[in-house]
């Protein structure tokens, strides 16, 4: 008698579909069995089926197309979107994102005062708890199809003896021009990792269950490598790859 499968049902569904995608039973680009048929096959509810599908979506083996269903993807397929990373300066002297996307803030971004947490203080080389100007923005492009969360941090100590002691500097990318106008020669370092989103982040970015975030920290530095500001980006981690020109 074969041993009983003691794995949770959603994981049995994920394993069944994963094996079928990898061995060609479910060819790339073709629809997978419907949620209803999988629910009957495994004797579960449709939410359990969706939980299994979310595991495969997070690993890039399936994609959901609104109004059409869920389709198999080859593990060798390229993602749907490639985003160049970095900052470039236009001939007019403006700083713009390398991806060329015109991002719009969902709401007007307002400067707030926050205290530097330990991890960010370490990157900015400032004492933990130092006050900073902080801007938060949900940004969209392509009629809302592309979404990202963007946060800008500027330590107060960077602004000493400048006009920004009395007024808040602008958020990035306008911040770069403001810092250059103060006489700084700028360059940038980015740190990239993945993690699962917090509930409010998943809601803002419209992430399906099981889809991770790309978490990017960008530090703006002077020519002598003194940190001036830090940005935090949260991007959907499915169907997206980042490219860096070296």
From TrEMBL:
InterPro entries: Bact_HTH_transcr_reg, Chorismate_lyase_/UTRA_dom_sf, Tscrpt_reg_HTH_GntR, UTRA, WH-like_DNA-bd_sf, WH_DNA-bd_sf. Residues 7-75 form the HTH gntR-type domain. GO terms for biological process: negative regulation of DNA-templated transcription. SMART domains: HTH_GNTR (SM00345), UTRA (SM00866). The keyword Ribosomal protein does not apply. GO terms for molecular function: DNA binding; DNA-binding transcription factor activity. It holds the Pfam family GntR. CDD domains: WHTH_GntR. SUPFAM superfamilies: Chorismate lyase-like, Winged helix' DNA-binding domain. The keyword Transcription regulation applies. Keywords: DNA-binding, Transcription, Transcription regulation. This is GntR family transcriptional regulator. It comes from Streptomyces mangrovisoli. The lineage of its organism: Bacteria, Bacillati, Actinomycetota, Actinomycetes, Kitasatosporales.
